[in-house]
Amino acid sequence: TNTDAGTILVVSNNELKYFSGVENEKGFIDGEAPRFYMPTNIKFYNDYLYIWDFNTLRRVEVKEHLLSGECITIVGEASPDFQMNISNYTINSSKIILPNSKLSGFIVDEDTILISDPKRKAIWEVVEKRD
Q1: What are the Cα distances from residue 43, in Å, to 49, 52, 60?
Q2: Which of 99 and 34 is assigned the larger pLDDT?
């Protein structure tokens, strides 16, 4: 990832090439031409690239020849503000505001994603519904 430019690059045939995002146009926009705010941590699983982007988890389809497909936000609402105390531990994944932390991480499994929330000392379980 290029955190400063908001892009994701790929190495192909010993060359570093563009994969997804629009250079220097930061944002949280999904779709075929997504904008990333601060992509840091990535994992590839089952033809998808999962991206930790500031305080959201996003997913980009990886097509043949390392082309990017549609991007969607799986978890999180982009916001610098979050409630430290959570009164309901079952939350719609698009409504939760996760804190931004360099210590945040995630694991992707067949139908579950685990996300660490170090500021709240919690681990969130997300059940992903794939098409």
Answers
A1: 6, 9, 11
A2: 34
Lowest mean pLDDT among 51-60, 72-81, 120-129: 120-129
| Rounded (10°) CA dihedral 49, 1, 73, 95 | 130
pLDDT the model gives residue 129: 65
Q: Which amino acid is at 30?
A: D
Average pLDDT, the chain: 90
Element (H, E) at 44: strand 39-45
Other residues' Cβ atoms within 10 Å of the Cβ of residue 18: 13
